[in-house]
Each structure stands twice: as structure tokens, then as C-alpha cells.
Amino acid sequence: MADIMHRVGIKSSKDDVYKALATREGLAACWTNNTQGESKVGGMLQFRFDAGGFDMKVLELHPAKRVLWQVVDGPEEWIGTKISWELKQESDYTIVLFKHQGWKEPVEFMHHCSTKWAIFLMSLKSLLETGKGAPAPDDIKIDNTNQ
Amino acid sequence: MADIMHRVGIKSSKDDVYKALATREGLAACWTNNTQGESKVGGMLQFRFDAGGFDMKVLELHPAKRVLWQVVDGPEEWIGTKISWELKQESDYTIVLFKHQGWKEPVEFMHHCSTKWAIFLMSLKSLLETGKGAPAPDDIKIDNTNQ
Is the Cβ pair A144, B98 closer than 8 Å? Predict the structure, then answer.
């Protein structure tokens, strides 16, 4: 098993960062414009991109603290993996500890996703700090997949 | 053991990407302005930042293909870890597969470093594609460490 990990610090309150991660509107403003579904425990979220997408089951929603999803549909390597967002306060920053856990193998696609998650975390930071994120399809491209 | 992995695609030749990764000048233009030492097999490179830095021993230099370093001094969690850069061609992109391998534990600092490596890989991409990277101290800040 292998995990992707990231950490960003956002000059914003835990409540506001949580709101961005725990609502369809917030996720659409930082990850992909095409976000559908219901962000409630047991609910499903559908994230769509030009090249496909991911269906996530919402497993946990702890206000201002933690969000946990499990991937139920999407690329084969993603199915069954879990994505967690932990929030904590440090001085005037909300720290986001991100994990995408449970990859069976550290395949090349995992390398791509690791870099891309960093880009989307920076989009989340930008959304909270400036009011404007960079969700797909206007996300920063990192390689020849155009994703 | 835990690894950090990333993948970027750069619209440039393998030779030019290799040159950026295998020379003191190239590294100073994408990672940190304060890069000293000799990039030759068995040589040492010193990377310095406001908050400290890393000393790397150059283990492998395969032109247009692969660079491998081992950390010999720096933060405790880094010592003994290895950093590899693999290059390959895909259409008009040079793909860089990056690994920072051998972390003893997936500590919070590893989360930070994972995000920060993504930022520096995007700086490498920018250096090759536009002629201008964003090395420290003008690097993009990701959290409350100001690193």
C-alpha cells in the first residue's frame, strides 16, 4: 500500500476551510466546476473532468475538523482508496493535512495524481485567501495528460 | 518506509531537462538560488534556504536519463533518504518521474515536503518552458513555515 500526502496552510478560519471541503459549491470552486451530488454522510459526490472522473462516498464530516471520502467509481487504481482532509489551527493559519490512502502499487499514475493533488490544494488555498480558485477545466496543467 | 512521488511533463528536450537537474546553475535556477558544490558522481551539492538546507551526495548522473542523490546532512528525517529524477520522452514532452524515497515515517513534515516538491517541479517546468523558474527565496509559499 502507498499513500499520497500533502500539507498546506491557509490564512482563513477552520470553519471556512471546512465549508469549502464539505459542500458541493466549495468543491466546485476549487477542484472541478463539474461537481454534482450531495455532501452528507452516506451521500455520493460526482467529480467530472474532460477525461473522466471520480465518484466518492462521503464517510465522515466533522465540522472544522475532518472530511473523509471513499472512491467507489473512477480509474481502477482509485477504487477503494480513501481521501482524508484533516484541519487544525496554527497561529493565523488553518493547516490542511491531506491523504489519499490505500493505493495498491506506486504506479506512474500515482505520481501524476500526487502532483495534481498539490495543485488542487493550492487552488483551495487561493479560493480561501483570494476568493478565486482554479478548478478544472481552468486548472493548472502539469503534464502531457492535459489533466 | 514511505516515499514521495511526482510526475510533470515539460515541453523541452530530455537533454535540456537533464542539464537543469545535473548542473549547479540549473538547480539554482529552479530550487534555490543558494546552491553550491559540484554536480559530479561522488561530489556534494549544498542547497540552502532561509531556514536551513540539505547536503546531497551525487550518486548517479546518466545524461538525458536519470539523476540520483542521497541526503547526507539536513533535517533528521531527510538523512539517508534518496532523491531520484527519471527522464523519458512522450510525444513533445519530457516526462520527469520524481521520487524522494526512504522516509522512516509518514510524519507531518513529509506532507509539507511532498507539496513543496510539487511546487519546485512546477518551477523546473517553468524554467524550461519560459526561461524563468521560481527558486527560493522567491518560491511559492505553501504554509505557515514560510518554506
Answer: no
